[in-house]
Design goal:
Structural class: alpha+beta
Strand order of the largest sheet: 17-16-18-19-15-20-21-22-23
Helix content: 25-40%
Largest sheet: 9 strands, mixed
Number of strands: 28
Strand content: 15-25%
């Protein structure tokens, strides 16, 4: 369903127009009684009434019309009523002679005491009424709208031409500011409901047509008094109720606790239900758009996204940032990298809006109108900064902005997923909910918040990435030039080792093939420098919050880190405008285990090389650092320079290193007793 314009309760396209506005019969029309009823409905006996029956003809834009000749006469309501009742057959005796071609006018608000009083808003005694007049639609439709809007009409007058004059309660007392506020609001509501008004009639001192007079052979007559709501307050309460599409209260006692409504199905397992909202927040270069494209494809195919499994269904991806060609090519790259076939590609609709996006309040109805035809399981908006209007830091304005996501989700019956950027600076010192730029509404509004923060990689992690990518490059190359059985020859463990895989390639490839492999290894080594690491923290409304998830962004895909290599890394923080690196959070036992492992590797390497050498005259085997360096790739799984080995063998105190020679520490007179 397409939502109606806010504030509209009447569709002008469906006006029946069967309300007739007919002049009273000449013999039945009591002119004095019309005016008496009008006065008694609008004024108290002691109110001063301003009116005008003198006119002159004026030409505007080639058309002739009659206009008032002066500001007006003043009498109290009681005086006018008395004179009208005294001369029951002559209205002019009370109000003065008038031109029956022109008619006459009266002001609908009481004025301050007569004398030098001028007919301006400043001299209005009580801001009681306003004039509602329209001549752009037939009078029968005007009457129908006035009645359907339940306007608090004190008096309704036919102008004797093509409009009705409704004198409507405003009840602002002496407060002219409140009067203007209420009149502006009333005019806006009338306009939204098909009553196009004369904007000049807003003034409290405005003249309106006086009932009981003739005008160009037509009657200025009273249709009725006290029509609709009794006053402004009653009408406003009625209107707010009509315009209220909120549900009623539900008493818990009315529910069958053993048969409650089922929860919405999970769209993203353990993260998001269908019809709910999800925000992905993160800094630039986190690959947020790639992550959303990966999610789009996962939803369209019903497969895993990172760790959770997605329910299969249609998806609308709204692209605000990329040009059309770039967006389509990016989808192709990600599709191929994910290894997905094109069987379910029909489940994805893309709306390219770069250079055409509106603010979300204007865009939402247009999006809804298109999306209801597709019936998507999710709409993905990427990114929302393109459609934000107002102050991003204003909670009130951003709450109104985020309400549009609810409107889209409700009207289309789908989930809404969108991404937003972090504020400037390193975010490691903040909670995940506080990192998104702007008001905290962004973090509190969605049902699921997935926040991404970068993890600074150190040499150890970079070495791991390099080895992994080189292994991947070698394996792919071997697949292309060797029989598939090569994988059985090398085994699962060795296929993950850069050292073992390189040796296997050397043993089984020709020189020419090795030359073809070398550029691929160099490219993989270079690519490793561009791989980044990230941590996703989740804040969920419907599900138990899962542990943080670490992942790699290896263009064009994100991969979950299953090795645990990233788990102890802490993101950077900002202190007084400076970005600082935090120490990794691994505990002492883990560090000690790593030290023990390295120490044992050094001892094993010494013993391996020493086994092939004869002892010196004192019975001690001395090994040169260069001998271990030459075999380091086999001994340690990676090449180590002589200088590096020199430092490592001195590090733990098991050996003495002098002049490039390694000697066990308890030799050459350096015994445990000597140390003591």
């Amino acid at each position: 369903m397409i939502p109606a314009e806010e504030g509209r309760i009447i569709d002008p396209n469906w006006l029946e127009g069967n309300r007739k506005v007919e002049e009273p019969d000449d013999k039945a029309w009591n002119q004095n009684q019309d005016l008496i009823a009008y006065l008694e409905a609008l004024f108290s006996p002691d109110d001063w009434v301003s009116y005008c029956t003198k006119s002159h003809e004026k030409t505007e834009n080639g058309k002739s019309k009659f206009v008032p000749s002066f500001s007006g006469n003043y009498k109290t309501c009681a005086e006018l009523v008395h004179e009208l009742k005294t001369m029951t057959d002559d209205v002019a005796w009370a109000v003065g002679d008038y031109d029956k071609e022109a008619g006459g006018w009266i002001r609908f608000n009481p004025f301050k005491e007569a004398g030098e009083t001028k007919a301006t808003d400043a001299n209005v005694a009580d801001f009681r009424y306003t004039l509602i007049e329209s001549d752009s639609i037939p009078v029968n439709q005007q009457l129908e709208i006035i009645e359907k809007l339940n306007l608090p009409v004190a008096a309704l007058v036919s102008s004797g031409n093509k409009s009705l004059h409704a004198i409507v309660h405003i009840d602002a007392g002496s407060d002219d500011k409140e009067y203007k506020k209420r009149v502006n609001g009333l005019y806006d509501i009338c306009e939204k409901n098909g009553l196009k008004l004369d904007k000049q009639n807003r003034n409290a001192s405005r003249l309106s047509r006086m009932p009981g007079l003739w005008r160009k052979g037509k009657k200025q007559f009273l249709l009725g008094v006290n029509i609709g709501a009794k006053d402004y307050a009653a009408w406003k309460a009625w209107y707010d109720e009509q315009n209220d599409d909120l549900p009623d209260f539900e008493n818990l006692a009315s529910f069958d606790w053993d048969n409650l409504p089922p929860l919405a199905p999970e769209l993203i397992e353990g993260i998001l239900r269908k019809g709910h909202k999800m925000l992905i927040s993160g800094p630039s270069k986190a690959g947020k758009s790639f992550l959303l494209i990966e999610l789009t494809i996962a939803l369209a195919n019903g497969v895993r996204w990172l760790r959770p499994t997605c329910a299969k269904g249609p998806v609308v991806y709204v692209n605000f940032e990329l040009d059309r060609a770039s967006c389509l090519n990016r989808f192709k790259v990600v599709y191929e990298a994910m290894g997905m076939d094109m069987a379910n590609i029909k489940n994805i609709d893309i709306w390219n809006l770069r250079g055409k996006s509106l603010d979300l309040q204007k865009l939402a109805p247009k999006l809804i109108r298109r999306a209801v035809k597709v019936k998507p399981a999710a709409i993905i908006l990427d990114p929302i900064y393109k459609v934000i209007t107002g102050d991003e830091n204003s909670a009130q304005e951003m709450a109104l902005f985020c309400n549009q996501f609810d409107k889209i989700a409700t009207e289309v019956d789908c989930s809404v997923i969108y991404c937003h950027h972090h504020s400037k600076g390193a975010q490691g010192g903040k909670k995940a909910m506080d990192r998104a730029s702007g008001s905290g509404v962004f973090a509190r509004d969605p049902d699921a918040l997935l926040d991404i923060i970068e993890l600074p990689l150190k040499n150890e992690q970079r070495t791991h990435v390099k080895a992994k990518l080189v292994c991947r490059a070698i394996s792919t190359y071997l697949d292309s030039v060797l029989d598939a059985s090569w994988r059985d020859d090398i085994g699962l463990d060795d296929i993950q080792s850069e050292y073992q895989l390189t040796n296997y390639a050397k043993d089984h490839l020709t020189d020419e093939q090795m030359q073809g492999l070398q550029p691929l290894i160099v490219a993989a080594d270079d690519h490793a420098e561009h791989v980044t690491a990230w941590r996703i923290s989740s804040t969920l409304r419907e599900f138990e919050t899962p542990p943080d998830m670490d992942m790699w962004f290896d263009y064009p895909l994100h991969h979950v880190d299953e090795s645990g290599l990233l788990k102890d890394i802490r993101p950077d923080v900002e202190v007084n405008g400076r970005t600082l690196h935090q120490k990794d959070k691994s505990d002492g036992s883990a560090k000690q285990a790593k030290r023990d492992e390295e120490r044992q590797d050094l001892i094993d390497a010494y013993e391996t090389v020493a086994a092939s050498k004869a002892p010196d005259d004192d019975g001690v085997v001395r090994v040169k650092v260069t001998d271990i360096a030459k075999q380091s790739e086999a001994l340690f799984g990676k090449e180590l320079a002589r200088v590096t080995l020199h430092k490592k063998y001195r590090k733990y105190g098991d050996f003495v290193v002098e002049n490039g020679v390694i000697t066990p520490k308890n030799s050459d007179g350096e015994t445990d007793d000597d140390d003591e």
